[in-house]
Amino acid sequence: MIPFHDLWPILVGWAIAVGSPGPAVLAIVGAAMGGGRGNGLALAIGVWVGSLIWAVVAGLGLSAAMLAHVWLITALRYAGAAYLLFLALKSARVALSKGEARVRAVQEPLRLSWLRGFTIHLTNPKAILFWGSLYAVIIPPGSEPIALLQVGASCLAVSFAVMCLMALAFSTRIIARGYLNAHRVFEAAFAALFGYAALKVLTAKVVA
User: Fold this and answer.
1) Beta carbons within 8 Å of 57's beta carbon, 6+ residues apart
2) Which residues cross the membrane (predicted)?
3) Do residues 91 and 188 lie in contact, with contact meaning Cβ atoms separated by under 8 Å?
4) Beta carbons of 59 and 143 less than 8 angstroms apart
5) SS3 170
6) Residue 73 binned pLDDT confidence (cut-offs 50, 70, 90)
7) Within a 10 A sphere around the Cβ of 7, how many other Cβ atoms?
8) 86-132 pLDDT, tens per residue?
9) CA atoms of 42 and 62, how far apart (whole Å)
10) Is 31 exposed, middle or buried (0-12, 13-18, 19+ CB in 10 A)?
């Protein structure tokens, strides 16, 4: 077991990393503001499930196997970039439209919001490398398996809390009203940021 006084600074840093702007965070914010609490939470949980899968894969040591087969990383890279570009084009189309936003600007089933979040995170090849690096740096060599479980479970719990709090915060009436009043500005920003994220995924060096 890792003592709590050694673990809590890691969890604080993890919370900041989870809440920093990125494809998943942008999607959560957009879903919560445009579709409300339900869609925001559904998408956040989808992202979290994707993170859970990568955490387990990295914990089982399969990240090394993926690095040995670079084509897997490449395939994920292009799939993720393509999906982010799709989201960028979708937001751009809304930003250029002349229709008025309604109270529920995003009309989609909760399962679709969940799937969007899951897809965004599962097609991000940097996620498994991030989890693998976390385990390698934090867990001392020769530690018992319980240390791996402790770090993984703690970081996943923090991720779940941060993502859900963001979904709840951005679905509040005051923020939703601001979204409705300036929805084209928001969607234009999302289009630019999703496009930038796609470019970063394509150009980032994820394999040494």
Assistant:
1) 63, 66, 128, 131
2) 12-34, 41-62, 68-89, 118-140, 146-170
3) yes
4) no
5) coil
6) low
7) 17
8) 778 877 887 787 655 443 455 688 999 999 999 988 887 667 667 76
9) 28
10) buried
- As a residue count, the chain comes to 208
* pTM score over 0.90: no
Q: Measuring CA to CA, which residue among 164, 204, 202 is closest to residue 83?
A: 202
Residue 120 in tokens: 């965004």
Burial of 43 (0-12, 13-18, 19+ CB in 10 A): buried
Cα separation of 84 and 90, whole Å? 10
29 touches 170 (CB < 8 A): yes
Q: Tell me which amino acid residue 189 is.
A: A
Kindly write down the DSSP assignment for every residue of 84-118, as one continuous string: HHHHHHHHHHHHH--SPP-SS-----HHHHHHHHH
